[in-house]
């Protein structure tokens, strides 16, 4: 028996003194109201109404039970109201600034299907960490080494023109000795990848193949990095999804396989599990995880 539904029917009929009127006010058929009241009487072990062909009146037992039934109905309505407010309360999530708006919009829509009202805060890695530490967001997608990650995004080099090869090697950016005045091509790292597990192996490779220190540099933003690539021959370290979004030609890096790693951190374990589980695929799309992964 649905105790709340039965109490609603009992209270409505008892308040209005009629199964017809009470059922109408409760927005249920009269036959349903009668069945629910009868079920409640069996459950409580006593008769709630004296029924005649013309009237319905509360029994002494019914009058004693009416106040308790009202409290149950009021508590149920308060709980339903609180649940609605909780579903509508924004779930603030810090996400990478490199995420494409379209993918983020799809994530918000998917979250609504799971009764989650996402409010996204885009930011660079350090900013996302600060937002989480200050409890300004409920959860954040943070950069972590690949072996600690829930999501992994392969990185490569992208430029404004098709390089005509399947793999780009960093050593090809060396300036010939006979042409020292030629402009040195650079690899730009966006702030999203200015983290040790991505930046440091790349700078070590730069030194190993004999590039100048300025030939691998951190850009102010991914937009600035893309502008340098589109305007000339520089390259951007990015994911295939970012390259498509920016209109760049992406290739794997020959000497290295850099990977972005992401993990979700939240104040409540259930929040993190929700993002990794029910919304995991939508989060992966936002981060640029390849479909095959």
Automatic annotation (TrEMBL):
Coiled coil segments of this chain: none
A GO CC term attached to the entry: protein-DNA complex
InterPro entries: LysR_HTH_N, WH-like_DNA-bd_sf, WH_DNA-bd_sf
Superkingdom classification of source: Bacteria
Annotated HTH lysR-type domain residues: 1-59
Keyword set, alphabetical order: DNA-binding, Transcription, Transcription regulation
Pfam family, any one: HTH_1
GO terms assigned for molecular function: DNA binding; DNA-binding transcription factor activity
Similarity comment text for this entry: Belongs to the LysR transcriptional regulatory family.
Name listed for the protein in its UniProt record: LysR family transcriptional regulator
Taxonomic source organism: Micromonospora sediminimaris
